[in-house]
Design brief:
This protein is α/β, with parallel strands linked by helices. The chain is built from 7 helices and 5 strands. It has a 5-stranded parallel β-sheet, sandwiched between helices. α4 links the parallel β3 and β4. The chain is elongated, with a radius of gyration of 19 Å.
Length: about 200
């Protein structure tokens, strides 16, 4: 039983934005999301809990926009960085679409200001946010046990059957209110613990 990243199938690198792409539920597709955003002038919000997959989906959207020939700039906020980058005006002038990951972390009023400014400049503005603002095309992003099982390559994980791993993911999602990062941490540690138990004593 191989352990540690990246051998552990629940390694955190699997959740990096754009790593492996967003996995859609049956009946949903990136083409559908792109159509909704295009209808809204490339303006909208990807909403959902921590770790639901918003950043990964936004990365997929950006890649598709670039394939269509649009100029896209990625901005990101964090708890320590609550302002747009210092190049924000140049970015607006040189971009067709601004993708803002973590827009809910912006200082109060800045989100509304950037929405209004990008609209007046006829720029696309696609954001990820935890809360629904009803802005542009609203795309809910929800993690599910079946989709995460695919993301984590559970079929390669030893110790339990595929169905048992999916059940554990489902239970962890409920426990962590849909936060797949916390689910990943729980399963990573459980996999490591089982691996240590399976190792022969020296």
């Amino acid at each position: 039983m191989d352990t540690g990243a990246p051998q552990n199938p629940f390694s955190s690198h699997l959740l990096e934005p754009g790593r492996g792409g967003y996995i859609f539920a049956p009946g949903q597709s990136l083409a559908q999301v792109m159509a909704r955003l295009e209808e809204a002038g490339w303006r909208g919000e990807l909403t959902g809990n921590h770790g639901a997959g918003k950043s990964t989906l936004l990365a997929d959207i950006c890649a598709e926009l670039r394939r269509c020939g649009l100029r896209v700039t990625w901005w990101q906020s964090s708890d320590r960085r609550r302002l747009p980058p210092s190049t924000w005006m140049r970015d607006l002038l040189q971009s067709d679409v601004i993708a803002y990951d973590g827009a809910e972390r912006l200082l109060p009023g800045l989100f509304l200001f950037l929405r209004a400014l990008t609209k007046s400049m006829k720029r696309g503005f696609i954001v990820t946010t935890h809360w629904r603002h009803g802005y542009g095309a609203v795309i809910p992003v929800v993690a599910s046990a079946t989709l995460l099982a695919q993301k984590f390559s559970v079929e390669q994980a030893e110790g339990y059957s595929l169905e048992e791993w999916q059940q554990k993911i489902d239970e962890a999602l409920a426990r962590h209110e849909g936060n797949s990062r916390q689910v990943l941490f729980d399963l990573y540690m459980e996999y490591e613990d089982r691996a240590r138990q399976d190792r022969p004593l020296r």
